[in-house]
Amino acid sequence: MLRTPQLVLAAVVVAALGAWAALAFVAEPIGGVPMSDAAMKLCVSDWYAEHPAHGGVSPAAATALAVDTFLVTNFRFDSDGRSATQIDTVRVNAGEFVMWKIASGFHTTTSGKPTDLDAGSLWDLPVDPGSPEVVVDFPTPGTYPFFCRPHGAAFNMRGVVVVTGGTAGVGGSPRAAGAGFSRPAWPNPSRQNANFRFRVDRSGEVSLRILDASGRAVAHVLGGTFAAGEHDAAWNLRDAGGRRASPGTYWALLDVHGVRSSTKVVVAR
Ligand SMILES: [Cu+2]
To answer: Which positions carry the signal peptide feature in this UniProt record (predicted)?
Structure first.
């Protein structure tokens, strides 16, 4: 006989666990009472056991490429360093990367709002001691709300990424007035030179580096003190040893007194 009591029992337990896991993210635990680390950990690991994490970019390139970061803590996504603001907003240009970095607890970064039926369709990633830094790329302009699965509804643990067009000066992107690339690299793909234009909002240290797709530094295009204003630079598609970079995708990473921005460079065959 195939249908033994043990099998039936196992099926009941699995069904109950499934219902609990679903419930845990809809009806929150004791409302407003902080969850224990163990409860958070269970919520997060159960969820990703059944719903594969997706939407991030490879950690190697990620850390260097992220232009802004949310610190993930109990129970907020903090990007402005102020605990008084519950829901923080980060603004990036199209094509740039945002990092979520764990500070305490077990959380997720999940696209959408807690009540959305398609929540997590763009990205859905654990942020916990097991994956302390996760990075998502934002190629398309738009407004991207996100939340933490265990804490989005009960603790209002949410945030927003606003992505503006990569070509500043057109449509007045919020970062156009600040420091950073003021237009995408050109020509793209590049055969001899990749050209850059960037803006320095106040005189200070500037560095422009080229990273390969795995986040390794390939070339240092410029470094030094620059005056406020618009500047141009070019990369001759050669690495630090003077060899031509192999065809593929690279990232130009600009730091202007600590403000980071990035733009993609494709080296043609
Ligand atoms: Cu959380």
So the answer is: 1-21
